[in-house]
Specification:
alpha/beta, TIM Barrel, GI Alpha 1, domain 2-like, eight-stranded parallel beta barrel, two-stranded antiparallel ribbon
Length: about 450
């Protein structure tokens, strides 16, 4: 069977402006919202798991590649979404999680990870070997040759796994691959690090180096399956910083891409970009738009809004879910997911735990205390009605849909619709002539 992402590349080659959002999230509300939006248009959905999130040791989600696949499929079954329209991807697949270990050990574990992803049916594989490993020299940058060499090793492992998969599933879809040496840090920057757009020279050097190294490994045919390269087009976010896309800054880079019609750019950290800027990125060849923290930021924002309304509507403090307080409590009990990312005074860190664009709170949403508080919050709203004026105050976008009879005033549905607002931005960017309500054009 043909990989759905190849269709996108072929459409672009004949002049049809299109792209695909890559949703990097394991949050149930997020995934359900994405799939329900896709049902409206009979779309495919691309959902990716990151190497530190899901791996052979469980990652921070305590899931293997198979576990994550089954988790996503279970959500699809619950809402009757066609699983054949789900493209599973692996993000930053490589030695990222084990970069403190020597090359031999880190790459050995990376080979296991990519193999498990392919065997589990992941059909988009981002091979990321851009990080230094434990025994790499610390006094000079990692060469593109070394990055490509490690990428070739992992590519061969993926292809071996695919051939093994064909033995049990002759109709298995061949994976497509994303490569590249200028890969942003997963989850956004920690500081304003002086972002620089990839130069045309660096982009072409990456392409030529990968081709040389892959040829050395007998992998000339790999370029039938390599569809994208990660570059830095000038977009990024930090805790309180946004780098908005400026196509003039990226014009030379994007013009150079025209020499390679079988390749698109993959843009990482596109979270929080205005819809018109996302659309410009797709028009300029950045056709794969990765988004993650903005999705769970929207969930967190909605749950906070509900919590503020809960305080207004439920007078008995003992009956409230106290979601905001519970989230703060669990983040203070275990700080390892945010302590290296949030800095400044205690007040600065408290504000960041709630409102940082990097949204480190998402790492705590699957913990039992947080899940229980979220469910209690939703249940509490089954017994009260939200006044329209109050909804306008705390959830103005959802208010418009409730007012117009397009959305139920139900706590779960209101939360899910907060994610829909983000998904709509990406639909607007990647679909030809797609129109969304003016309230979303920000």
């Amino acid at each position: 069977m043909k990989n759905n992402l190849l269709n996108m590349v072929e459409k672009r080659k004949i002049g049809i402006n299109c792209g695909v959002p890559s949703f990097c999230s394991a949050n149930k509300i997020v995934i359900e919202a994405i799939m329900e939006q896709a049902k409206r248009f009979d779309d495919i959905v691309l959902i990716e798991a990151t190497a530190n999130q899901v791996n052979q040791y469980g990652g921070y989600m305590d899931m293997t590649s198979e576990d994550f696949r089954d988790y996503v499929y279970k959500i699809a079954d619950r809402i009757n979404f066609d699983k054949s329209k789900i493209v599973l991807g692996g993000d930053h697949l490589g030695p990222l999680t084990w970069c403190d270990e020597p090359e031999k050990d880190a790459m050995s574990k990376a080979k296991v990870l990519v193999r498990q992803c392919v065997l589990a049916g992941y059909t988009k594989v981002h091979l990321d070997t851009s990080m230094k490993l434990g025994d790499d020299p610390i006094d000079k940058p990692l060469s593109v040759e070394k990055i490509a060499e490690r990428g070739a090793i992992l590519y061969k492992e993926c292809e071996k796994a695919y051939n093994d998969l064909l033995k049990t599933n002759p109709n298995a879809v061949h994976p497509v691959y994303i490569i590249g040496s200028e890969v942003p840090i997963p989850g956004g920057t920690q500081e304003d690090e002086g972002l620089k757009v990839t130069t045309p020279e660096d982009f072409e050097n990456t392409i030529l180096t990968y081709k040389k190294i892959f040829k050395k490994h007998g992998l000339d045919g790999a370029w039938e399956h390599i569809i994208g390269i990660v570059v830095q087009p000038g977009v990024e976010f930090g805790n309180n910083e946004l780098h908005i896309y400026n196509r003039l800054d990226a014009i030379k880079l994007c013009d150079t891409l025209k020499k390679y019609p079988d390749i698109v750019f993959e843009g990482h950290s596109t979270d929080y970009q205005p819809p018109i800027k996302l659309k410009e990125m797709v028009e300029d060849g950045i056709a794969i738009l990765k988004v993650g923290p903005a999705l769970t930021f929207a969930v967190r924002e909605a749950l906070f809004a509900l919590s503020y309304m809960e305080k207004e509507l439920i007078s008995d403090a003992n009956k409230r879910a106290n979601f905001i307080e519970t989230l703060e409590e669990v983040m203070l009990e275990d700080d390892h997911n945010w302590v290296k990312h949030y800095h400044g005074s205690e007040q600065d860190k408290k504000i960041a735990r709630k409102y940082s664009f990097s949204d480190r709170s998402r790492y705590y949403f699957s913990l039992p205390k947080v899940v229980a508080a979220q469910e209690k919050l939703f249940n509490n709203f089954k017994n009260v009605s939200i006044p329209l004026g109050m909804l306008h105050q705390y959830m103005p976008l959802q208010y418009i849909k409730v007012r117009d009879g397009k959305l139920k005033s139900d706590a779960y549905e209101l939360t899910k619709d907060a994610v829909v607002s983000i998904v709509e931005d990406y639909n607007y960017a990647v679909k030809h002539n797609y129109m969304i309500s003016g309230v979303f054009i920000k």
